[in-house]
């Protein structure tokens, strides 16, 4: 059993080793829809990393309404009525 790489590690390695621009073209983040909502807590450390927020409408290509929090390397879809997010947004609005 020596010399085997766990599948997860191999996948990660492949991801790191393929800076293929076509890979990103295949899945442009702008057209990606939230298909499910994140349910975990939204700690301030996470919210601080948000680059921008978009509201995904349920009418066009996506069937789910959600706030999409765009972080540097991923996006998180949150229920549009999430209280902690609403409070945070309000706070942001007051700051600027
Ligand atoms: C939504 O808000 C509640 C607090 O009102 C929080 O406990 C929950 O984790 C939040 N998160 C998401 C992503 O829905």
CATH architecture of the domain at 29-95: Beta Barrel
Q: Any ligands, ions or cofactors bound here, and which?
A: 2-acetamido-2-deoxy-beta-D-glucopyranose
Strand order, biggest sheet?
A: 1-2-3
Major sheet size, sense and barrel closure = 3 strands, antiparallel
Number of strands: 3
Radius of gyration: 17 Å
Shape: extended
| Parts with pLDDT < 50 across at least 5 consecutive residues | 10-29
Helix tally? 4
**What is the structural class?**
alpha+beta
Beta-strand content bin: 5-15%
The CATH topology annotation of the domain at 29-95 reads as OB fold (Dihydrolipoamide Acetyltransferase, E2P)
Helix content: 25-40%
How far is the first residue's CA from the last residue's CA?
59 Å
CATH class of the domain at 29-95: Mainly Beta
What is the typical, i.e. mean, pLDDT? Answer: 77
**What is the succession of H and E elements?**
HHHEEEH
What features would you describe in this structure?
With 96 residues, this protein is an alpha+beta fold. It has a domain at 29-95: Beta Barrel (OB fold (Dihydrolipoamide Acetyltransferase, E2P)), CATH 2.40.50.40. The chain is built from four helices and three strands; from the N terminus they run H-H-H-E-E-E-H. The chain has helices at residues 7-17, 21-26, 44-48, 83-95; strands at 52-56, 66-70, 75-78. It has a three-stranded antiparallel sheet, with no helix packed on it. The longest helix is centred in the last third of the chain and has 13 residues, at 83-95. 2-acetamido-2-deoxy-beta-D-glucopyranose binds at residues 38-42, 78-79, 82-84.
């Amino acid at each position: 059993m020596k010399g085997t790489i766990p599948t997860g590690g191999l996948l990660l390695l492949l991801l790191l080793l393929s800076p293929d621009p076509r890979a990103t073209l295949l899945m442009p983040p702008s057209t990606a829809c939230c298909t499910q909502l994140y349910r975990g807590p939204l700690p301030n450390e996470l919210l601080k990393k948000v680059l921008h927020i978009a509201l995904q409408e349920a009418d066009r290509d996506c069937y789910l309404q959600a706030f999409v929090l765009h972080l540097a390397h991923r996006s998180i879809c949150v229920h549009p009525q999430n209280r902690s997010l609403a409070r945070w947004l309000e706070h942001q609005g007051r700051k600027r």
